[in-house]
Amino acid sequence: MSDVEPSKLKKFGVRAASGLGMVAICGVPLYFGGWVLAVFIAVVCTRVIYEWVRMSDPGQTKLALIIPVAGLSLALGLAQFGIWGVDNWKWALASVGFTGALATLERARRGGGLWAGFGVLYVLLPSLAVLWLRGDIAGVQAAGFAKFIFLVVVVIAADSFAYLGGSTLKGPKLIPKVSPNKTWSGLISGFVFGALFGALAAWIIGFSPAYGALLAIPIVAFAVLGDLLESIIKRRLKVKDAGGLIPGHGGILDRMDSLMLAVVVAAAVLLIWPRIWPMVGA
Fold it and tell me: Domain check: are 61 and 78 in the same one?
């Protein structure tokens, strides 16, 4: 065995341990959903906002952080207020747009206003999507719990095995100018194991494993695009990681990048076409 292989396996072990630790921390708020999850999202995404502002705004002011954090709290509060009526979500989405415009104006004085506006959408829309997907019915039998866990299992499996497959099999690079470490072998490994774990999750939840594998494929595709999107952003901003909070991962934003786009697309699809999800536990 070469000297390189143990280091890669060790790094994979650190990544896996960090990932499991994050799942354990998220377990309680995901179990309860509703206000418990909303508060948890507010805390976690405040850190994500800090990482984004720190990464994208060298001349940041206090307002550069205060505006998106206040907008996050407002959007989550509006979304969770009442009994999950459609109007609440319209107001929540409107508040995200308003916050983005305000952040853009504040940053425009220093230049690069679009980075601030984009950052608001980049963090706040996935926050609302997670809250909406999970819902406010507590317990593992809740349909929202099953939906979100299915999504998370597929994304984590695809991300982990893409790293392991790419590190082991190597081969041609996927998009070397954007992300020099990603390979076609890693991409294929991510799709294969994402589908396999989707089938397994479907079997545990109680619907067809074949349909679970089929549902997993677009989830993996958008997870990959989400990962590549952050790679493009970091390359453009000339930073390696968004932060250093999580061993083996960088910042929280570095760990959540694959999930962020996937969860927004999943929420949009389920809103337009709710019957795509089998009526299990509903």
Answer: yes
Question: Which domain covers residue 79, as residue numbers?
Answer: 33-136
H/E stretch holding 88 reads helix 86-108
Q: Kindly state the helix (H) or strand (E) to which residue 181 belongs, with its residue range.
A: strand 179-183
pTM value is 0.87
Residue 111's SS3 state is coil
Q: Rounded distance, CA 195 to CA 5, Å?
A: 26
Average pLDDT, consecutive stretches of 10 residues, N- to C-terminus, the chain (282 residues): 52 63 80 92 94 90 95 93 63 94 93 93 96 90 92 91 84 79 89 96 94 97 93 86 62 85 95 86 44
**184 in the same domain as 89:** no
The sign one gets for the Cα dihedral 264, 262, 205, 23 is negative
Alpha-carbon distance of 86 to 150, in angstroms, equals 24
Beta-strand runs (E) in 204-274: none
Total tally of structural domains belonging to the chain: 2
